[in-house]
Amino acid sequence: MSFINFSHLKSAISFSSCCLLCLAFVLSLSVQSCKKVDGDPPSVALSAPSSGFVVEGNTSFLVEGKASDETGLGNVTAIISDLVTGQIIASKSVSAEGLSDNFSIEIDAGDRYTPTKEYMLRVTAQDLAGNNGSGFANIEIIEFPLAFRGLMYASNAQQDIWNIAAWMKTSDTTTATLAGPTGLNAVSGILSDDRNEFFVLVQSESGTLRSYDQTLFDVAYVNELNEGGAFPVLTDIGMNATSYFAPSQVPPYLRVFRDDGSSKGDFEDMLYPGTAVCVTDSRVYAGAKGVLGSPLKLDAYNLQTEALAASINVDWEVLKILEINEDQIAAFGNKNGLGYVDVIDKTTFTKDWELSLDADFVDAAAANGQCWVLTSAGLKALMVGSGTFSNALATGTYHALAVDKKSNRLYLGTSNGIEERTTTGVLLRQIPTSGGPVKMIAPVYNK
Question: What is the Cα gyration radius of the chain?
């Protein structure tokens, strides 16, 4: 009688299984080693545009060429970027199929604000394995030309009751008047936000920020702060690309609003009631009333940190602040029936000129390195380089001043309309208005 040694059998089976597993692993490695790993990028042949191509900003153009890959294409992407900073100003992707694909991509040449300079166009094809191959061309984008579209204006019908309207160009030779809101209380500042195509105004009574569509004056938003009591709240308005800035007579004294009108915060270092504001690329300038015996001031705040950077004492209340050129700002105001102007170096924040007017200050405007000042006696040019004034360019009773920086045309608000004049004061035409004397004017542009 024979016996089976099961322990030996179990060992034999285990050994056989191990051998089979090892054989399978070896075969697997052999099969994988036979496969080709795709590490080769696609090729891109860019046929249009070629280097040296010139295009106007805020338009579009076609990017054309051929992409190829041995194992299959996935997509093609065109990117326009700044040659120096690498900032991407436009990007567009399309799907690609097969081993070869003729692509055509319509891409935007930036927007209305893209500056004139040379840019890099990079076209990248990606294959199914994730490999990328690119073609390049250097192109030039020319800044979208600025165009004057018209004027927004505020008429003072009676004490603290205001009407808003706009005189707009519908073509090179045709204009139309758009009727806006009427009977508004205590309007204290207006501007045209051409980036959003809004008209924006602030009201000092209770503090309100209002915005209207530029086309039909439809309400875009209203932010009512409902504060201040007997004291005026918002006294002026300025803006940059993302925010509105409004000085206030009650704390907090310098308010910031988002471009949708919602409250964004305030400048904590602004410690005195605000009277006027001007926003530049790096700073916010604010006029302030002294309290408890402290002096009247002009403050400069760092736009990024919101901290007080510099301050100048003045002997009069600042009513308007303008950036008059790359190096200087000017502050305007009144004291005892006379107007005053301080021209201030932006870098050192010291006074280049301290000037007085022969009548009380009414309004001022600046464009292209030139500045004009309106008093109760009429209009003069401020000669910034010498710190002097021209002879009268226009005499009479005027209430507001604005300048078209495209054509250097001046617009003066009268008791029943707006006068258009050259920079030397020559009267070109009279634009009739209704609703009372025109006391605020804001130019409107296409960007």
Answer: 33
Q: Quick check: 10 pLDDT over 90?
A: no
Pair 80, 105: CB distance under 8 Å: no
Banded pLDDT at 211 (limits 50, 70, 90): very high
* pLDDT score of 44 more than 50: yes
Pairwise CA distance, residues 332 & 330, whole Å: 7
Q: What is the pLDDT of residue 36?
A: 58
27 residue type, one letter = L
Residues 360-379 have pLDDT tens digits of 999 999 999 999 999 999 99
Residue 250, judged by CB atoms within 10 A of its CB (0-12, 13-18, 19+), counts as middle
Distance CA 326, CA 323 (A): 8
d(CA 373, CA 81): 42
Of 329, 338, 328, 294, nearest to 314 by C-alpha is 294
* pLDDT of the residue at 9: 36
Q: How far apart are CA 410 and CA 398, in angstroms?
A: 12
Tokens, residue 345: 């170096």
Q: Which residue has the tokens 């004027």?
A: 151
Predicted local confidence at residue 293, as pLDDT: 65
The stretch 60-71 carries a mean pLDDT of 97
